[in-house]
Specification:
By secondary structure, the chain is α/β, with parallel strands linked by helices. α15 (370-376) links the parallel β17 (353-357) and β18. It has three domains: 10-99, NAD(P)-binding Rossmann-like Domain (Rossmann fold, 3-Layer(aba) Sandwich), CATH 3.40.50; 109-311, UDP-N-acetylmuramoyl-L-alanine:D-glutamate ligase, CATH 3.40.1190; 320-451, Mur ligase, C-terminal domain (Protein-Tyrosine Phosphatase, Chain A, Alpha-Beta Complex), CATH 3.90.190.20. The chain is globular and about 65 Å long. The chain is built from 18 helices and 20 strands. A six-stranded parallel β-sheet has the order 7-8-6-9-10-11, with helices on both faces. It has a six-stranded mixed β-sheet with strand order 15-16-20-17-18-19, with helices on both faces. α7 (122-136) crosses α12 (282-297), α7 (122-136) packs across α13 (302-311) and α17 (407-417) crosses α18. It catalyses: UDP-N-acetyl-alpha-D-muramoyl-L-alanine + D-glutamate + ATP = UDP-N-acetyl-alpha-D-muramoyl-L-alanyl-D-glutamate + ADP + phosphate + H(+). Residues 116-294 form the Mur ligase central domain. It is an enzyme of class 6 (ligase).
Amino acid sequence: MNQSQKHIDRKRLVILGGGISGMGAAMLGAQKGYDVFLSDGGDLGSAFAKALQKHSITYESGGHSMDKILDASLVVKSPGIPDTAAMILKIKSEGIEVISEIEFASRFTEENIIAVTGANGKTTVTSLIDHILNVAELDHTTGGNIGKSFAQQVFEGESENRLLEVSSFQLDGITSFKPHIAIILNITPDHLDRYDYKFENYVASKMRITMNQDENDYLIYNIDDIAITDAIEKLDIKAQLIPFSMERELKTGACLLDNNIHINTHNSVFTMPTEKLSIKGKHNTANAMAASTASKLLQIRKETIRQSLTSFEGVEHRLENVLKINKVQYINDSKATNVNATYYALDTMEQPTVWIVGGVDKGNNYSELYSLVNRNVKAIVCLGEDNSKIVEAFGNCVEQMVETSSMEDAVRVAYKLAQAGDNVLLSPACASFDLFKNYEDRGRQFKNAVRGL
């Protein structure tokens, strides 16, 4: 029996990475009759270890035992492990299939999948659709790149609809994952360090969301985004194309008409005044368009969609108003881990702004922020281990720039620089891993520091 045949005949599942997605895949694998082994190169949290023990799943942490890993018939890897990692290349060279957790979960469900991707806005759109589905009392689960993993959802039981936020890293590991409704919000340079610093590789990764769709499925996409429209022209997409636009009038799809969101699908029209949206800013109008279009395709009543769009409260760490102190508004936008997300944030600032920026640079081009910084930013507080690129980019744009290396220090400096009527905005444009566990940790530390002023 050759090596690849051995892998087909047995059901030994190896999970690489013990995070939320790995735990979900491990429990689902055990439920479906696999002999499961989980291997985590770092420290496995005590709660995760207890969950694995409860389900009698064998595991290791603090390193990888290649002999045990290469005994797999199937490997599910964490989105954080790149395809170029030596371990992954070795596994694939042995003829063992390596997939992502969303691909693994999708093999055990025929349910309706709504999947949202994009460089920016995907958490807001996923959360907004979730809110609409809750108001409509539609049977669904929500998760993926946020909240519960897809595998965890499938493990816990059936549901008519699976709403998922999906990242490019998750899409890289799919072969048959097939959403009924796929949404691509935008594609701007992000995570280029994982894609050989080639934007076209990142675009190709995002477009995988539609690769298995057929003519009964829908692709909702931003027709204003040149990267998306160019990709659509080159690809043989089978899904029904539903565009949305902030810039042009569309006969089919979603657009702006006389300050109203106007959506026409299947000869049925939905309208909603933009002034009644609970979340403000041009980018959020586009987000509302995408979420409303998906909800309309799910045949949710128009009045329910309108009601939901007026009552949605937004997402933590995304332009989140924290406190107003001495007439200065403190805003937490820690989720802005790339330049494009920060562009949206700076564009919504209507008062002079003290901007807290910095972290792990992922190949950022800051030049597109110059006009907004010149217009809206009065002072910059750098927050990172290495602020040289930010200092070089914006040193001539503002009169005051201060370097800091802790959140408490950054907030104290911003407090001194701000005057009544100003904003203090944390919108880092960078990943958080130099000083924080993740963007959530960074955002919570910001809120705690503000509350401690």
